[in-house]
Design brief:
Largest sheet of chain A: 6 strands, mixed, barrel
Number of strands of chain A: 12
Number of domains of chain A: 2
Distance between the termini of chain A: 29 Å
CATH topology of chain B: Rossmann fold
Strand content of chain A: 15-25%
Largest interface: A-B, 25 and 35 residues
Helix content of chain B: 25-40%
Shape of chain B: globular
Order of helices and strands of chain A: HHHEHEEEEHEEEEEHEHEHHHHHHH
Oligomer: heterodimer
Structural class of chain A: alpha+beta
Strand content of chain B: 25-35%
Radius of gyration of chain B: 17 Å
Strand order of the largest sheet of chain B: 6-7-8-3-9-10
Shape of chain A: elongated
Radius of gyration of chain A: 30 Å
Chain lengths: ~400, ~230
């Protein structure tokens, strides 16, 4: 019965209810955005890591993947040791770091090299031409930014070296590669000039061949469920490296993004308070106007708790009706803000700040429901304390 | 002060030395002073008196929406002063019907939905509920107006809906506070006829009114002044 009364009651003043719903919807949209932001980068990274398909990542001790140019020595020995474990399907040794690149006769420019063996599309996606082949020592795929900067295209030659002799304006001990493809690199910053070659070749360019230095080992498992066990085993067996399952890597990243959490917590709390005040004000006003009616309902035998429930339900219904606005406007605002933020420098191209996840949606729903329930507390208190006889007397006299 | 001892045995209401005081800005206002009254199962009692004499206060006490400051009040055989809020609410739902001067219908509900409220609260199953709503609206002559909202009804029709709402749970006692106060003379007469019919069909009625013509329909007529009953005559 109270559901029926609450719906009819809310639509008694359609304009006021509609404005209230819009207001709560806008506050809800901000709340949703803050939920999407609080774990957005983490969720975005999770999505990318999942799409790449390796369950464990091994890095130099004390670093996250590609956080620095640091490498760990004896990389292929460690890779072979890990690959020997029966839980491991295969291991991809990867080198990454800053180098110089030039076209024939052109001035060298700073670039980032990825060396990956076997050369799968784990770190990049070829958009023109072809990919590297196994144990490739003659080809390179380049990012659109590098191709543009060097004015090279598929079939051209690319020179790369770890050092640049400034007085001569020349690369020191350059190595030549034929550009076989243009690729987008998942972890590149916007406009980053990158290219990919085989692991051994990248070690040669970086001067890491002697110590067999690697930046990262990407470890694929037969059963993803044992990623945590395998990463722990790697840390224990090879103390010179750090190993992360996807979940552990995300936790490590999240701890570095605490300011996003704080930001979203503060703005999310503000939006919740706005939502509570808005719903509370609308319902309290409505109750104030209907005290006579509520007294009549009590007089004809409706229980006190029934009317208290009615007021709470009206608060929750206001929130419920605002959900399409909250989720629609929240998504639209998130897309707009994400477009602005991801254009900033130092942001990997495939990353997003605002990611719609089930967690964000459920948290938004719960927080809005809590806001509605708390907002209904004061009006419910008014109804709970309603004295029938004086209220009826006032209504008749009024 | 007045009682009707002959009806005491079958009394729905037994009030003895009923007092009700209000406090306003630290001063006591004596709304009722030692009122004694019995209402029997087939009584039709009218209460007249000047404004502020305590008529509505007495009606509120008889209707279990307020409690006396002092005195004895038994409603349907139970000591009203010892009842919890929930028990008084249940008593109002099952044994009492209220009709007010201003109708107090919920404007967003149809006539049938307004009448349905006490039945819904009592947990009546849907088929029985719908049948009873039809029956009671037919009884007050508004069977054809069931789907209309109060704003689409005349004052007299709204009061009929309010009476139907009061009757829907088959109360033993109907309490009416100035039921014709907002109606024109002709419409008021129709409501008076309806109340007389209700009484003839077996419902006890206590009626507060300023309208002598309506009061004359009652089988007992009380006069109140300064919180006291001054006269009780058939």
């Amino acid at each position: 019965m109270i559901g029926f009364l609450a719906i009819r009651g809310l639509f008694r003043h359609p304009a006021r209810t509609s404005l209230g719903v819009l207001g709560v919807g806008v506050a809800g949209a901000l709340l949703l955005d803050m939920q999407m932001l609080s774990r957005g980068l983490q969720a975005s990274l999770h999505r990318i890591l999942d799409s790449i398909g390796y369950e464990v990542r091994v890095t130099p001790r004390g670093t996250l993947p590609f956080e620095t140019d640091a490498t760990f020595p004896d990389g292929h020995r460690i890779a072979a040791g890990i690959a020997a474990d029966r839980r491991v399907d295969h291991v991809a040794p990867i080198v990454g770091g800053s180098v110089y690149a030039a076209r024939p006769g052109g001035a060298p420019i700073a670039a980032f090299v990825y060396g990956m063996d076997p050369p799968t599309e784990a770190l990049w996606r070829v958009v023109a031409g072809s990919d590297l082949v196994p144990r490739d020592s003659v080809h390179a795929v380049v990012s659109p930014a590098l191709a543009g900067a060097l004015r090279v295209q598929v079939g051209d030659t690319l020179y790369a070296a770890g050092e640049y002799a400034t007085p001569l304006g020349m690369l020191r001990s350059p190595r030549a590669y034929a550009v076989c493809g243009i690729a987008e690199f998942h972890f590149d910053l916007r406009g980053q000039r990158s290219f990919a070659i085989g692991t051994r070749e990248a070690q040669r360019v970086r001067g890491e061949s002697g110590r067999d230095g690697l930046s990262l080992l990407a470890v694929a498992l037969h059963d993803p469920a044992v990623a945590g066990d395998v990463s722990a085993w790697i840390r224990a067996t090879f103390p010179e490296v750090q190993a992360y399952s996807v979940a552990e890597a995300l936790d490590a990243v999240q701890s570095q993004l605490a300011y996003f959490n704080l930001f979203s917590f503060v703005l999310g709390t503000v939006s919740m308070v706005v939502c509570m005040l808005l719903v509370g004000t609308i319902v309290a006003l409505s109750v104030g106007e209907r005290l006579g009616e509520l007294a009549i309902l009590r007089a004809i035998g409706l229980r006190r708790r029934r009317l208290v429930g009615l007021v709470f339900l009206e608060s929750l219904l206001l929130v419920l009706l605002s959900l399409p606005v909250a989720f629609g406007a929240g998504q639209a605002t998130a897309l707009w803000l994400d477009g602005i933020l991801t254009r900033a420098p130092s942001i990997p191209v495939d990353m997003s700040f605002f990611v719609f996840t089930r967690r964000a949606a459920v948290r938004t729903l719960l927080l809005l429901a809590v806001s509605g329930a708390v907002a209904g507390f004061y009006p419910a208190l008014l109804v709970g304390r309603l004295r029938i006889a004086p209220t009826l007397h006032r209504e008749v006299m009024g | 002060m007045s009682a009707n001892p002959s009806a005491a045995a079958a009394a729905l209401v037994v009030a003895r030395d009923l007092t009700k005081d209000y406090f306003l800005d630290g001063h006591a206002i004596h709304a009722l002073r030692a009122v004694t009254l019995d209402v029997a199962a087939r009584d039709f009692v009218s209460i007249m008196g000047p404004s502020g004499c305590g008529k509505s206060t007495l009606l509120h006490l008889l209707g279990a929406v307020d409690v006396p400051t002092a005195g004895e009040l038994r409603l349907f055989g139970r000591d009203a002063r010892g009842l919890s809020d929930a028990e008084r609410t249940g008593m109002r739902l099952r044994h009492l019907g209220f009709v007010f001067q201003r109708f107090f219908l919920l404007p967003m509900l149809t006539a049938a939905e307004n009448v349905a409220l006490p039945l819904l609260e009592a947990g009546a199953p849907r088929p029985a509920r719908e049948a009873r709503i039809r029956e009671v609206l037919e009884y007050v002559g508004l069977g054809h107006r069931a789907r209309h909202k109060p704003g689409q009804l005349s004052g007299g029709e709204q009061q009929r809906v309010a009476i139907a709402r009061a009757l829907v749970n088959r109360p033993q006692l109907l309490l009416a506070d100035e039921p014709t106060g907002e109606l024109d003379e002709a419409t008021g007469r129709q409501i008076a006829d309806l109340l007389a019919q209700l009484h003839a069909d077996g419902t006890a009625i206590v009626l507060v009114t300023h309208n002598p013509e309506l009061a004359a329909r009652a089988t007992r007529r009380l006069r109140m002044r300064d919180g006291r009953i001054e006269g009780d005559r058939p």
